Amino acid sequence: MKCKFICPSCGAEYSTDEPIWRCNCGSYLDLDYNPVFDKTKLPEEKTLWRYSQVLPLDIKSAVSFNEGYTPLIKMNFWGMDVLGKLDFLMPSGSFKDRGAAIMISKCRELGIKEIVEDSSGNSACAISAYCAKAGIKANIYMPAVNSAGKTVQVRTYGAYLHLIEGNRIDCANAALEGATKSYYAAHAWNPYFLHGTKTVIYEILEQMNWQAPDYFFAPVGSGSQILGVYLGLKELASAGIIKRMPKLMAVQSEKCSPLKDYVNGKETPISSHNPSIAEGIAIHRPVRLKQIVEAVIKTGGDFVTVNDDTIVEALKASAAQGVYIEPTSASAVAALKQYANDLPADSKVVVALTGNGLKASAKIDGLIS
Length: 369
Ligand SMILES: *Cc1c(COP(=O)(O)O)cnc(C)c1O
Ligand SMILES: [Zn+2]
What we know:
Blueprint: E1 4-6, E2 13-15, E3 30-32, E4 72-77, E5 80-85, H1 96-109, E6 114-118, H2 122-134, E7 137-143, H3 148-156, E8 160-164, H4 168-178, E9 183-184, H5 191-197, H6 199-207, E10 215-219, H7 224-238, E11 247-253, H8 258-263, H9 289-298, E12 302-306, H10 308-319, H11 327-337, E13 349-352, H12 361-368
Helix pairs in contact: 1-2, 1-5, 2-3, 5-7, 6-7, 10-11
Bound molecules: pyridoxal-5'-phosphate (PLP) and zinc ion.
């Protein structure tokens, strides 16, 4: 199905045959793409590509590791039964591979040879991996303070790493400068990325026999996961597969909570001093802030903030069940603690386990003793 870029701010439309990444008015772009999902037409293969009928690209250009269809397993946190979606088992170690798979496939379709991305870590790893597979040169801008594990991973994939002193905003600005010379394939901006991350909710629904969960807890930084999930849910609702939406529970660190701040009419102070251990969601100015807030509110969900001590407790509680996740990922588990006694007993709760602990072992070493 053919689609267009559409600007949610001024309504301008652009062809998706052009390598553009934002509107002339400065806003991010969305896709005008409304596929009708038919669950009777699913292929045998158990990868995210089984949902290609709702993916906005020519599947012939797919850059793929046969990824996806990650396990959804029973876990228990603070006495509450939940389902953990093990998306940290994706090829580069985080859910961001879903977005990178679709976005970099689209880049290949357009004949793009070189891209720019800025990241706190995992999206850079994901994009570097897919660029390596696609033969596209990746320029990655990262804050110099991040986990060594992730910079090594990016460099080893063969990406060109630009380490930037300062905070995430300095880093984004440096990337924008770089993007004047090649295509800015940024997870925070690119709508193809969201159509990739949406596959997680298709998988979850299918794994739950097409019954929607009541709650979906996820760590939120730029919102690429939660907005993808919301996109997928809207498609599943219009296909008549779900009757109501799960409540989207957007989890952030107490030290950086622009969603909650926005709802309370405050502007999040920018500081790189004393950052949260959940580095992957320390995004002070999410590009799609209002869109995230709207999605959460429309589902009747909530904005939850957690502190570092509870994140460490959550990380250990997960590892005690054999599931080794990184601190950013553990923030979603930490949020469950605040709800353990409040949710109706038979609630179906899914928690997104987004990032692999193996990337952050050096950091975790300093936290668990
Ligand atoms: C990036 C990331 C998040 C947050 O995802 P956004 O798309 O930025 O909201 C959560 N967990 C992990 C492990 C991540 O790498
Ligand atoms: Zn516009």
